[in-house]
Amino acid sequence: MKPSLVLKMGQQLTMTPQLQQAIRLLQLSTLDLQQEIQEALESNPMLERQEDGDDFDNSDPMADAADNPTASSEASDSFSESTYQDSLGSAEPLDEGDWNERIPNELPVDTAWEDVYQTSASSLPSNDDDEWDFTTRTSVGESLQSHLLWQLNLVPMSDKDRLIAVTLIDCINDQGYLEEPLDELLAAFDPELDVELDEIEAVLHRIQQFEPAGVAARDLSECLLLQLRQLPANTPWLAEAKRLASDYLDLLGSRDYNQLLRRMRLKEDELRQVIELIQSLNPRPGSQIESSEPEYVVPDVIVRKHNDRWLVELNQEAIPRLRVNPQYAGFVRRADSSADNTFMRNQLQEARWFIKSLQSRNETLMKVASQIVEHQRGFLDYGEEAMKPLVLHDIAEAVGMHESTISRVTTQKYMHTPRGIYELKYFFSSHVSTSEGGECSSTAIRAIIKKLVAAENAKKPLSDSKIAGLLEAQGIQVARRTVAKYRESLGIAPSSERKRLM
């Protein structure tokens, strides 16, 4: 082809640095946002925390707009761009001067934040040893191996036995079971150590006496027996429970109670008490040792009922209220291009944009939460069975935003209601048609299935086909495979595994 110059017209979506910052803050969880705000406070001298009792009228009314904690569902649109611009002007104590005209309201879309303003110092690694808290940054929950090694250090052992014990502990999985066969472990030891299989078994028996009870077992039967042996000798039905765990555990797993009654020669009520003793044990003893860090949930929105009306409020305790420091803002001088003045002017503009991004985040969160509450009033009044079908597109149309924005708002954002704390995504679910031409939420169907299973006859649990028939009798048309999918999502076992003795 012959090279040539061609002029074309087209459209391309670009984002300004301000929009990029607003989107980034919008998708942060409350805990991540708190950390982001703290970093901004530490790096930007123009930003300061609004303390209780301070008057915003004398400093920066933008902070009140940026974090209004008591906006109800009818007042979610109370913030406006004009209000922001007016309050922003009053945030700076300089009544006249044209220095702020040099600060652009919008950065060009083809620039980056660092092209115009300095990068925050908080994004750089700190070498200050005094501020580095190694414990809080690296500490995690205790692992099962470390828990067992701690107990091993309290037991007097020879060096050879201690080496065997450490090897055995390394082969114990998170559930508390020994994964490797003893003969394979024996082959892994150095022949010069002259380790014998009896020695490994002896050390294993000592480890099996450690806490938690049942640890280092090689199968479920041994795990249950280890726990039963640690119970008091006068425990009712202890001998029968040991016999069941040792010889008939497969029959218990298949719910073959008739065979258990015949082979153990027990009456139905006696077998039920033996099974209750077995079920009181922990089949996964290693799970008692928590190795992961605890996860905390801080609600972003609080919903409460007042005078028969549901009100939506931002959680004022979750995010600190910010404002521009009026004293530092007053240090910015007009027509001064010195390095210090340029730095302060950059920090002032960055602070203004950060507060505006927080305002935008709170406005969007309030609009979305208010629409969710408006749509799911039945859930708040009557519970999960009254949940209505809802998709992102419905909220996007109601608030006039894109579905991707709604997705960001509802991810890792939580709502505190009288019925509990729920992620905003919980209120979204698909629908199933009803015989009357209406729609039923999949969440409501799950709640009905859970209710039916809870009320079923334990000797004859409901099959998926039977549950589908009961739902159809209520006008909800659901296939058997759909019932099975919903049941599995609720963590409910199949009917063959739910069979119990009365």
TrEMBL record:
| GO biological processes | DNA-templated transcription initiation
**Where do transmembrane segments lie in this chain?**
none
- Limits of the RNA polymerase sigma factor 54 core-binding domain: 135-328
Positions of region (Disordered):
41-103
Q: Which InterPro entries match?
A: RNA_pol_sigma_54, RNA_pol_sigma_54_core-bd, RNA_pol_sigma_54_DNA-bd, RpoN_core-bd_sf
Keywords for this entry? DNA-binding, DNA-directed RNA polymerase, Nucleotidyltransferase, Sigma factor, Transcription, Transcription regulation, Transferase
Its Gene Ontology cellular component terms are: DNA-directed RNA polymerase complex; protein-DNA complex
MF (Gene Ontology): DNA-binding transcription activator activity; nucleotidyltransferase activity; sigma factor activity; transcription cis-regulatory region binding
All copies of domain RNA polymerase sigma factor 54 DNA-binding, residue ranges: 342-500
Low complexity: bias regions: 71-82
Checking NCBIfam families in the record gives: PRK05932.1-2, PRK12469.1, rpoN_sigma
What does the sequence similarity comment in the record state about its family?
Belongs to the sigma-54 factor family.
What does it do? Sigma factors are initiation factors that promote the attachment of RNA polymerase to specific initiation sites and are then released.
What's this protein's name?
Answer: RNA polymerase sigma-54 factor
Which species is the source of this protein?
A: Zestomonas carbonaria
Quick one: which gene encodes this? rpoN
